[in-house]
Amino acid sequence: MAKLNEIIQWCDQTLKSHEFKDYAPNGLQIEGKQDIHKILCAVTASQDAIDAAIAQGADLLLVHHGYFWKGEPYPITGMRGKRIKSLIQQDISLVGYHLPLDSHPTLGNNAAIADILELENIEALDPAERNPIGNIGYLHTAMSAEDFKHYVSERLNFNAIHLPAEKNSIHKVAYCTGGAQDFIGKAAAQNCDAYISGEVSERTFYEAKELNVHYYACGHHATERYGVQRLAKAISEQFNIEYSYFELNNPI
């Protein structure tokens, strides 16, 4: 068993959440019981994830995508109201970490992508950032653009969408998980051969072609299902409590 406030304090310090300007609050979003015996982690605080937390007797739901995003309506009604009501009625805490969990050099989503794709010599996509949100890595052996598509699709268990450029081979790879397709310009500025993110926009097709950077959309969910698992495992080891992961395979 661990205390809720001890877990939050440890996570905040480990992820340096106070150093990020984010689109939603990081850390404790909905406060439940203070004694934590079990954590369920999930990418998004969907109703399915909440129902799984209730069914499994979890005391804390740890997510990458929580609530209270900038620009959202203030009233707690409708779908979001139902979700929050379910958590409060069951006395389950909701804890979410967004950009700090993308950025962390060992627990983060980007770190996981580098490990899975066996990228080497990791560096910042934007050298001016104190805590880089995106990164650059290098393949041990260069690949053709088509071979790289098959490689990332297999490794990330997602049928990647490839928007082609003129470069014949890929060695230097930029990446930022989730909905960061617009960072392709940063990848071009760093003379990368390819850029990986989760989602894709109509404009990205033209940007890949004109900036001469191969773009691979590997799924918002698919690229961000690793950070919460790494963080939950680290919490479990730090505080000797149980955790499990809930997977709802979102195709986006």
From TrEMBL:
One Pfam family this sequence matches: DUF34_NIF3
The alphabetized UniProt keywords are:
Hydrolase, Metal-binding
Query: In its keyword annotation, does this UniProt entry include Hydrolase?
Result: yes
Q: Where, by residue number, does a divalent metal cation 2 bind? A: H64
In its UniProt record, a GO molecular function of this protein is:
metal ion binding
Q: Identify the GO cellular component terms for this protein.
A: cytoplasm
Q: Which residues does the record give as a divalent metal cation 1 binding sites?
A: H65, D102, H220, E224
Per its UniProt record, what Gene3D superfamilies does this chain match? NIF3 (NGG1p interacting factor 3)-like
Recorded family membership: Belongs to the GTP cyclohydrolase I type 2/NIF3 family.
Q: How does it assemble?
A: Homohexamer.
Q: What is this protein called?
A: GTP cyclohydrolase 1 type 2 homolog
